[in-house]
């Protein structure tokens, strides 16, 4: 049975650019009166969308607007989006360090937050004193903190400095101790921002493992990160924000793929835009790209093991005696899954001036998911010079089922992106 521990309804946070308060004391007093009466702020204006790349017409911007979702006990929710999407603002509201302008939220349980380096630490107190201070803020008794103290210090790896004022800690030591305190004092809800990026690789791995342990004990984790691999590994749900607005919440891989697909250069099938190339060399350039089935029909979905055809055209503006053309299938976060190279037995082909139509027939065993394509042409008479390279030329969905003897079986996608057939030889000895 689902047990919501966080419920958010029509939440919004508006900021005023430039001035912080109202123009007069009377305005501030009127705003305060409306607040204690439970009424809407009388000075809330329409405001602009929080798009940091554009100039607006208003002095007000919505860092968050119309956000509604719920989180159940034991969920590990990842929050993703570009810088300025409203992720940190949302965490500050949930951590009660700032208030929403409109809407409401309900939290059931004790919350521990790690929003920035040294959150909740007093710089003049020692590490030991800050552990007890943070525990007290979280509502822990001194006895409960003492029972966890050795484990906290061991996890943080700062035992030698535990009786040193934290103002003398490095940023990495700060975050090590702060995370150790937040994770070990048994909060019902653990909120962690991108601050983990401060730690080294070993500590980040420990933190991810600890957050997984916390969730397996029935507690809830809210995790903001630009490390999408960590989000995929840790989270069972993902919330996608864009310019302060709710886009989607749902299954981890599907939402991450939608987020990454927003950066694609071009939809599948058609002419390649002039600005699509990563390189500016005009000796050769790709003109068009199509994904086809065996009937030469354009498609944007595939079944596992389905044969398909990649068709593209290439314009060559000078003779290239030693050329290689390569084509790759990869994930949306630029991890190559499969690569095929078009060359001769001598490893090179000769491309004379003109336009080429190229067809590549494939049947790769790629597990279900969302993928994109990459194409390159290279001049190996000039040290492998890349003449043209196209990234993310479209998005294709490979469907979830494998057919065996006419029956459909779901595929387990947790063991890698590509299935490779091998010849097994088993003998009893």
Give an account of the 3D structure.
- The protein is α/β, with parallel strands linked by helices and 429 residues long.
- Helices cover 22% and strands 34% of the residues.
- The chain is built from 8 helices and 23 strands.
- It has helices at residues 25-36, 87-94, 127-137, 142-156, 171-184, 201-216, 228-234, 252-261, and strands spanning 4-16, 48-49, 60-72, 76-80, 102-107, 111-114, 189-192, 220-224, 237-242, 245-251, 270-271, 284-292, 301-302, 308-316, 320-331, 336-342, 349-351, 354-362, 369-379, 385-390, 395-398, 401-404, 407-410.
- The strands form 5 sheets. Strands 13, 15, 16, 17, 19, 20 and 21 form a 7-stranded mixed β-sheet that branches.
- Helix 3 (127-137) packs parallel to helix 5 (171-184).
- It starts with a strand and ends in a 19-residue tail after the last strand.
- The model has no long low-confidence stretch (mean pLDDT 81).
Stretches with pLDDT under 50, minimum 5 residues: none
Form type: globular
Distance between the terminal alpha carbons, to the nearest Å? 52 Å
Largest sheet data: 7 strands, mixed
Give the number of DSSP strands: 23
Which short descriptors sum up this protein?
429 residues, alpha/beta, seven-stranded mixed β-sheet, six-stranded mixed β-sheet, globular
Task: Write the SSE topology.
Blueprint: E1 4-16, H1 25-36, E2 48-49, E3 60-72, E4 76-80, H2 87-94, E5 102-107, E6 111-114, H3 127-137, H4 142-156, H5 171-184, E7 189-192, H6 201-216, E8 220-224, H7 228-234, E9 237-242, E10 245-251, H8 252-261, E11 270-271, E12 284-292, E13 301-302, E14 308-316, E15 320-331, E16 336-342, E17 349-351, E18 354-362, E19 369-379, E20 385-390, E21 395-398, E22 401-404, E23 407-410
Parallel strand pairs: 2-3, 4-8, 4-9, 6-7, 7-8, 13-21
Antiparallel strand pairs: 1-3, 1-5, 9-10, 11-12, 12-14, 14-18, 15-16, 15-17, 15-19, 19-20, 19-21, 22-23
């Amino acid at each position: 049975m689902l047990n919501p521990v966080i419920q958010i309804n029509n939440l919004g946070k508006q900021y005023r650019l430039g001035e912080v308060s109202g123009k007069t004391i009377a305005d501030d007093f009127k705003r305060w009166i409306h607040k204690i009466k439970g009424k809407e702020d009388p000075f809330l204006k329409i405001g602009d969308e929080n798009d940091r790349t554009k100039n607006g017409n208003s002095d007000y911007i919505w860092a968050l607007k119309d956000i509604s979702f719920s989180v159940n006990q034991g969920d590990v929710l990842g929050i993703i989006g570009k810088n300025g999407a409203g992720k940190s603002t949302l965490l500050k509201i949930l951590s009660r360090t700032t208030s929403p302008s409109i809407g409401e939220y309900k939290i059931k349980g004790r919350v521990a937050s790690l929003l920035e380096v040294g959150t909740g630490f007093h710089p003049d107190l020692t590490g030991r004193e800050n552990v007890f201070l943070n525990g007290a803020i979280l509502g822990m008794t001194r006895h409960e903190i003492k029972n966890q103290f050795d484990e906290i210090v061991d996890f943080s790896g700062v035992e030698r400095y535990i009786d040193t004022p934290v103002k003398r800690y490095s940023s990495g030591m700060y975050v090590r101790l702060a995370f150790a305190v937040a994770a070990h004092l048994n909060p019902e809800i653990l909120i962690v921002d991108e601050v983990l990026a401060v730690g080294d690789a070993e500590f980040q791995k420990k933190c991810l493992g600890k957050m997984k342990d916390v969730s397996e004990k029935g507690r809830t984790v809210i995790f903001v990160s630009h490390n999408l691999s960590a989000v995929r590994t840790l989270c069972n749900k993902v919330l996608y924000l864009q310019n302060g607005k709710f886009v989607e919440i749902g299954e981890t891989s599907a939402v991450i793929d939608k987020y990454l697909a927003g950066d694609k250069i071009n939809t599948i099938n058609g002419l390649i835009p002039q600005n699509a190339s990563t390189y500016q060399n005009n000796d050769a350039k790709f003109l068009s790209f199509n994904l086809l089935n065996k009937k030469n029909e354009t498609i944007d979905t595939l079944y596992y093991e389905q044969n398909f055809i990649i068709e593209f055209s290439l314009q060559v503006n000078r003779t290239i005696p030693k050329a290689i053309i390569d084509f790759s299938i990869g994930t949306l976060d630029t991890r190559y899954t499969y690569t095929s190279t078009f060359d001769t037995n001598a490893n090179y082909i000769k491309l004379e001036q003109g336009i080429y139509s190229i067809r590549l027939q494939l049947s790769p065993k790629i597990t279900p998911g969302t993928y994109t394509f990459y194409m390159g042409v290279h001049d190996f008479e000039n040290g492998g010079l890349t003449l043209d390279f196209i990234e993310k030329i479209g998005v294709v969905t490979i469907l979830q089922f494998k057919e065996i003897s006419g029956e459909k079986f779901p595929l387990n996608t947790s063991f890698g992106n590509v299935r490779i057939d091998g010849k097994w030889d088993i003998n009893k000895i």
